[in-house]
What does this fold into?
Amino acid sequence: KTSNITDNGALVKCCGVFKYRTKYEPYTGDSYTLVRNHPLFIVSDSENQSLMEHSFCQTLRARKYSQFGQYLLVFSFILYILYLITYTTIMLRTKHPQYFYSLVNETSIHNYMCESVANRLISYNISEAYKDNTFKNLKVGVYTFLCLFIAKNLVLILTLFPRLFRKASYYLEAAALILAFVCVLDHDHWLSLLLLRCPTQYQV
It folds into this structure.
């Protein structure tokens, strides 16, 4: 049908046969090529960043934003707010290691004493040192958010290929998220029941 032929009658070769490209058929099936050849991507990789202020680029950006950008932005914002609430709540419920050390009359606050203090807290059955169900549920939420954000940053970093170090902000955010993960992680079984964080872990 001639109505499906492109205005310029562009011929493409597929499976050894030349045919006309239809209006809604991309010039290639390679998604990587389609992304790399997008005008906004080309401009972002160019030395002349002022091209991004051209009316054509502004129109493309506005269209992309109205199509899905605004929804992703709102969704990410809500996720970050929920993450900050859960992480802040956990940190407020987690006391300084010195407090837990003092409960078992340990005066030296060293990292190598952490396991000994934890075992004594358990053996003495000090109730205020144990996690309650609310705290455990909050930790599950924090783990979920952290995994999502770390995965998101990895994807964003990969989209920078081949200039992977073009935006340092992605790496800084990923590093901050990893440090937050280390802080809340129960890296040994003797920490899984307790609110106690080892000194080095707490400082992170």
User: Anything to note?
Assistant: DSSP finds eight helices and two strands in the chain. Residues 23 and 74 are 33 Å apart (CA to CA).
